[in-house]
Design goal:
alpha+beta; 34% helix; 19% strand
Length: 170
């Protein structure tokens, strides 16, 4: 949590969810320390929101857009898919909407809704906080970490386009 809060700038319910989501997702795909030299190139995370939880996931996993190990697919859903590139194992971890109401059960003495959620999410059992499902993810070679697969120069504007994002016309 400390690293997550330092990265994001504050402790909020989304930080707690994202931190726990990252820990859960990594454990489920067999990654113990995603920031270690041995495992940092074994993981890609697809986050489905551009909110607080995404910062927490990046802080915990060490995955970054610039390293091509986090992909932001902003569907507005509090979920993320964790993929072990070595084994192909993947899980989607989604925060349960019901966890908002369950916060009362785990932090009943806190009157402020957001403070109550933040504290409850820290202790709420994983199965009440998340829905976890095994999924299959096909990651094309051009979307994997590492050097660009191909670079071509645009005949029209002269810009260089890489990772097979170029479009050929006629």
């Amino acid at each position: 949590m400390k690293e997550s809060v330092a990265f994001h700038g504050e402790e909020c319910p989304g930080q707690v969810i994202g931190t726990r989501m990252a820990i859960t997702g990594c454990r489920k795909i067999g990654i113990e320390d995603p920031r270690s030299k041995a495992e940092r190139k074994k993981i890609i995370v697809y986050v489905e929101m551009d909110r607080c939880a995404s910062d927490a996931i990046m802080a915990v996993t060490g995955c970054r857009v610039g390293k091509r190990t986090v992909k932001v697919m902003d569907y507005g859903i509090m979920a993320a898919t964790f993929v072990n590139l070595e084994t192909g194992r993947a899980v989607r971890v989604r925060a349960r909407e019901s966890s908002r109401e369950l916060a009362q059960k785990y932090a009943s003495g806190i009157t402020d809704k957001y403070d109550r959620q933040r504290e409850a999410y820290k202790v709420m059992p994983e199965d009440e906080l998340f829905e976890i499902q095994e999924v299959r993810v096909n990651i094309p070679v051009q979307d994997r970490p590492g050097r660009p697969v191909r670079r071509v120069r645009c005949d029209e504007c002269g810009d260089w386009v890489q990772d097979m994002r170029d479009v050929q016309v006629d």
